[in-house]
Amino acid sequence: MDEPTTHNPQTAGQIDEVLQKIEKTRQARRHKFYLRDEKITLSHGSGGKSSHNLIEGVFAPAFSNPLLDAMDDSATFNIVGTNPRLAFTTDTYVVSPLFFPGGDIGRLAVHGTINDLVTSGAQPLYLSAGFILEEGFPIADLRKIVGSMAESAKEAGVFVVTGDTKVVQRGKADGVFINTAGVGLAHPTWQPGQNRLQAGDKVLLSGPIGDHGIAIMLAREALEIETEVQSDTAPLHTLVAALFAAVGDSIHCLKDPTRGGVATTLNEMALSSDVAIALDEHAIPVHSEVRGACEILGLDPLTIANEGKMLVIVSGEKADEALAAMRKHPLGRETAIIGSVQSSPEGMVFLRTDIGGMRVLDMLVGDPLPRIC
Amino acid sequence: MDEPTTHNPQTAGQIDEVLQKIEKTRQARRHKFYLRDEKITLSHGSGGKSSHNLIEGVFAPAFSNPLLDAMDDSATFNIVGTNPRLAFTTDTYVVSPLFFPGGDIGRLAVHGTINDLVTSGAQPLYLSAGFILEEGFPIADLRKIVGSMAESAKEAGVFVVTGDTKVVQRGKADGVFINTAGVGLAHPTWQPGQNRLQAGDKVLLSGPIGDHGIAIMLAREALEIETEVQSDTAPLHTLVAALFAAVGDSIHCLKDPTRGGVATTLNEMALSSDVAIALDEHAIPVHSEVRGACEILGLDPLTIANEGKMLVIVSGEKADEALAAMRKHPLGRETAIIGSVQSSPEGMVFLRTDIGGMRVLDMLVGDPLPRIC
User: Fold this and answer.
1) Which of A11, A167, B70, B204 is most buried, judged by most C-beta within 10 A?
2) A110, A152, A162, best to mutate vs chain B, most B CBs in 10 Å
3) Torsion of CA A287, A289, A290, A291, to 10 degrees
């Protein structure tokens, strides 16, 4: 870490000073995504800063093309002529443990890829499923996982239409890894994207954060913390459909804050759109059990993964309508307006803390919770 | 194994007897794809009989829908109205070693998915790439693999438009695993498929078999066999385009004989179309180095994986034109007509051997070469 991440200034002068520091940092960040490492570390899979370094240092330059370079969760394109527009996405799931409170790797693999299509404004249609199985894996467990996938797909009205299975020797994988790619029908004209944020937009969050990450963490560590925390894994296509019905293309960006959490996801948007995002800490919903577990474990809920929440960036004048529409939906009852978009300092996210201070909210650095999804 | 696989009858009476046995076996096979195993074994990843048992016992019933049930290499569907038809496929690559004579996991991951689209008569357009990386994997190796993928994609005119990277702890994977899913533009009317074989069709094979499997085997085992065998990994879209230009929808089925080899692939077709396939052993091209290595290793070239060959089933009257068209293409110079389709015994593949006998050619049983692709 070569930049400050926490400040608690109390006066206007101090705030100015912070803003100057921020501006300096921002300049530095522009050229920051390069890869110093010689070997893969767990933090390259965190979804945070190291992941970005890996993507920008290896994948993006090799594969560069206009569709990939947008770096949204799905690529959208026209196949022939101008319509239909399609969305295409992929995600691999390596979560450990495979079964956890509120779900399993199968539900996650279906919901995650549905949500990646939804964030592009697409209607999810078809999924592929690629399995890597470890020799010795119990077929009864595989049946449970596949059953979960089938059930989740049915609930969401999508179909698994093509698949593949590979097996590797004992000790060369960890039970089962699943890749799901997805194809969806994109909206003919509306195209939300992380480069579409504008000053004056509001930031909505569909409910309390950190449930998935903490549920996994507690399942994994068998800590003696007694909680009822369950993964929030859920498909968000009907929530977004209800939202779109209410405010249409006033929705500028949708993103599910999975790996890296709300902090990382908003940083990606701010960088991509060259804007600043200011959050109000007190407005961000967090279940008390999650907050408690985070305090004990030394984690920030803003960097913890969610699997059934949506961040929505909507134009300021439509924010209240969007809020009302989301709150009417079972998966959005606790939706809150948590912040707003401003023109500068470009590429930065900051948090007005409960105690009246301000701190820069950076992407996740390191990986406190490897294999969260 | 509960059925005979080899016969060397010399008289008409003996052949009749064999045909009766075949008929009995065929009846038994109809109900044979069930899963007795409690744990995953390497042979569930062979692409052969155990893989089919796993697919029919776990995946197919859970996910059943008309697109999946066709069990072709890609699913094809219309997104809106009647056009365009799309093809969608997925494949995961776990080959070991990652680098081998003639290619690496990156080239394989691009070529394999292109070829799965091509077998559906589709023009490959877009790929996704999902990586599972093991902690400690050298980034220099990752750069080489990603460079190979980018080069292969460019050569074939396809684009990697979306991706994902996960990292697992040391000892929980084996260097790198790659999933590529692919989207292609299917032909509006022509739809080759493994259920479309008809009596009188001819079986064409685009060149010598077994190169990929043997190259991997020799690279892996570091046997003291000195050969020049290289993987045949190649994208076959231009070969198929040339073939289609010559004979159009007289092409009833295309399939690249990867895992399980020519024997398994043709068995799948025979079962799906309720026909028999008769092969002439002497007509099947095999490089002498591959034949020699197979003899030493006790392997049958007909069950060894290929990554740049195509099996083409074409109506009898167009077979010579198809042969000529394929031979004109650099990747089809050694194309041969290796057999024909007949109406019975349904679901069976047999081989007229060089010594004048006949043997039932079954799917691959067990897995002599795990992690071949």
Assistant:
1) A167
2) A162
3) 90
Let me know whether A225 and A172 are in one domain.
no
**Where is pLDDT greater, at B20 or A60?**
A60
pLDDT for the residue B6: 38
Q: Is the peptide bond before B368 cis (omega within 30 degrees of 0)?
A: no
Answer left, alpha or beta for residue A81, where phi above 0 means left and psi between -120 and 50 means alpha. Answer: left
Say if residue B190's pLDDT is above 80: yes
- For residue B253, tell me if it sits in a domain: yes
- The reported pLDDT for the residue numbered A12 is 60
From A287-291, B53-57, B126-130, B217-221, the region with the lowest mean pLDDT? B217-221
Chain A residues touching residue B143 (CB < 8 angstroms): 58, 62
User: E strands, chain A, where?
Assistant: 75-78, 85-93, 99-100, 103-104, 122-134, 159-168, 176-186, 202-205, 251-255, 276-280, 311-314, 336-342, 349-352, 358-360
Strand blocks (E) in A25-84: 75-78
Q: Which of residues 57-96 of B touch A (CB under 8 A)?
A: 58-59, 62-63, 65, 67-68, 73-75, 77, 79-80, 83-84, 86, 88-94
Rounded CA-CA distance A16/B263 in Å is: 74
Cβ of B51 within 8 Å of Cβ of A143? The answer is: no
CATH number of B164's domain: 3.30.1330.10
pLDDT of residue A67: 87
Contact criterion met (CB below 8 Å) for B170 and B314? no
Rounded CA-CA distance A31/A38 in Å is 19
Q: Which of B92, B146, B174 sits opposite A59 (nearest CB)?
A: B146
Q: What is the mean predicted confidence (pLDDT) over B223-252? A: 92
Q: How many helices (H) and strands (E) does chain B have?
A: 11, 14
User: Do residues B225 and B299 lie in contact, with contact meaning Cβ atoms separated by under 8 Å?
Assistant: no
Domain match, B98 and B241 both: no
Residue B4 confidence (pLDDT): 35
- Compute chain A's Rg from CA coordinates: 20
Give yes or no: residues B234 and B302 share one domain. Answer: yes
Q: In what order do the strands lie in the sheet with A159-168?
A: A75-78, A85-93, A176-186, A122-134, A159-168
Last residue within a domain, chosen from A167, A187, A207: A187
Instruction: Judge: B130–A58 Cβ closer than 8 Å, yes or no.
Output: no
Angstrom distance (rounded) from CA B103 to CA B15: 44
| Cβ–Cβ under 8 Å, residues B372 and B305 | yes
Q: Does B143 touch chain A (CB under 8 A)?
A: yes
A289 at B interface, C-beta within 8 A: no
Q: Check if the interface score ipTM surpasses 0.85.
A: yes
Three-state DSSP class for B139?
helix
What are the φ and ψ backbone dihedral angles of A246, each rounded to 5 degrees? -85, -45
Query: What is the three-class DSSP state of B280?
Result: strand
> What pLDDT sits at residue A289?
94
Q: Inform me whether the C-beta atom of residue B126 falls under 8 Å from chain A C-beta atoms.
A: yes
Q: At A354, list the tokens.
A: 């409960």
For testing the chain B interface, which of A40, A65, A98, A127 should be mutated: the one with the most B CBs within 10 Å?
A40
For the ranges A22-26, A122-126, A336-340, B234-238, which has the lowest average pLDDT? Answer: A22-26
Range of the domain at A199: 18-32+192-360
Residues 6+ apart with CB under 8 A from B111: B152, B156, B233, B234, B235, B307, B308
d(CA A289, CA A135): 38
- Least CB–CB distance from B169: residue in A159, A164, A370: A370
How many other C-beta atoms can be found within 10 angstroms of the C-beta atom of residue A209? 29
Quick count: other Cβ atoms within 10 Å of Cβ A158?
A: 24
Q: Are residues A309 and A161 in the same domain?
A: no
The tally of domains found in chain B comes to 2
